[in-house]
Design a protein that fits this description.
single chain; alpha+beta
């Protein structure tokens, strides 16, 4: 009798363990889902961190290249926004340069330089009509290397441009490079002409000089790294002239813009204003993986009102017509970008050589 009772108990125990209830299955599935979500979040967070570090490292590598350029030529490269600055620099860096080399870049010689440069936007006239390159093109032009020919550093063997028949095209076999730009990240078409103007909606025609995409291997997934020279940070109080900026799109309508950033230091020569960051050197800027620089585009340049960046505050403005500053109406603790963009489009993944941390989000 005792054995039969024990047998029934054991049989009952085995029977009770033959399967899971629906509730138990749902609990297990929920736990596995949570674990999978945590794993995916951790993997994605690690991936983003690695990408940000790689982006910051690349900016620092480019900054080192800029310093190497200065050590060789005794001057920082211009950013292309001023022909007088460009010409003075080229004559200093290459004392034996031919006038014909300078003519290739001089904005006054549109009939000579052809597709070497282009300042048109979708309206047919760019506000910076006197520029040589935009701040993204200038980075590639100067750091990509020049020819050893002292008279023809631009069009000589290994220089930025090479002749193909009766026209010039971009030279992909440049020598003496300060930074090795990956060809897959340069906006180059098969004909040797850059595609950045039409790719980013900033022009009706393309020119020769490509830009370097900072956030991916193709134009479709990134925005150019831009370079601003301190000599042309400053805007002009003269109506019809403008300070430096880069807009990937039509100037009159683009919500995205890169422009030199201000520091938190008071400008002793202009009370109530701030000095630019790296006010005697240069600024490099990468838009990050959201492709957003974080500055307001100059939508109303013709009216004389120019917005610019204030770390620790919102966008201040300078009225060229009145010759004075329009103070910000709302102060903010957000650094480096306009507070309205901070709420709508975070730029925490942006990287530069003038912030305290590897990215904007890690700088405050």
């Amino acid at each position: 009798m005792r054995d039969e009772t024990m047998h029934k108990v054991l049989v009952g125990r085995r029977t009770s363990r033959e399967g899971f209830t629906l509730v138990e299955l749902l609990v297990v599935i929920a736990i596995l889902g949570i674990l999978a979500g945590l794993l995916a979040w951790g993997v994605n967070a690690a991936r983003i961190s690695i990408l940000k570090q790689a982006q910051a490292f690349e900016i620092q590598s480019i900054a080192s290249a800029v310093e190497a350029y200065r050590n060789k030529y005794g001057d920082y490269p211009p950013d292309g926004s001023s022909w007088p600055v460009m010409e003075a620099h080229l004559r200093k860096a290459f004392p034996n340069i031919l006038v014909t080399e300078l003519a290739l870049l001089n904005p006054a010689n549109s009939a000579v330089n052809g597709y070497v440069r282009n300042d048109n936007d979708l309206t047919g006239s760019h506000p910076l009509g006197g520029r040589v390159f935009d701040p993204a093109e200038a980075l590639v032009f100067f750091l990509g290397g020049f020819s050893n020919d002292p008279q023809r550093p631009i069009s000589g063997p290994g220089g930025p441009l090479r002749q193909s028949g009766s026209v010039y095209i971009y030279n992909t076999q440049r020598e003496n490079a300060f930074f090795e730009f990956k060809l897959s990240r340069l906006t180059l078409g098969a004909n040797g002409i850059s595609t950045d103007e039409t790719s980013f909606g900033e022009g009706v025609n393309n020119d020769l000089m490509p830009v370097y995409i900072g956030t991916g291997p193709a134009v479709s997934v990134g925005r150019p790294i831009v370079y601003f020279d301190s000599r042309t940070y400053q805007f002009s109080t003269t109506a019809g002239t403008y300070f430096n900026f880069y807009v990937p799109g039509a100037v009159s309508s683009s919500p995205n813009c890169a422009r030199p950033f201000l520091s938190t230091d008071i400008n002793p020569n202009r009370p109530g204003t701030l000095l630019y960051a790296n006010n005697k050197t240069y600024q490099l800027m990468n838009a990050g993986y959201d492709n957003f620089y974080g500055c307001r585009a100059p939508k109303d340049l013709g009216a004389g009102l120019v917005l610019f960046q204030v770390p620790g505050g919102n966008g201040c403005a300078f009225d060229r017509n009145a010759g004075g500053f329009v103070p910000p109406s709302v102060q903010s603790a957000i650094r480096f970008y306009l507070p309205e963009f901070g709420r709508e489009r975070p730029v925490d993944d942006n990287t530069s050589n003038f912030i305290d941390g590897p990215t904007f989000g890690q700088s405050s």
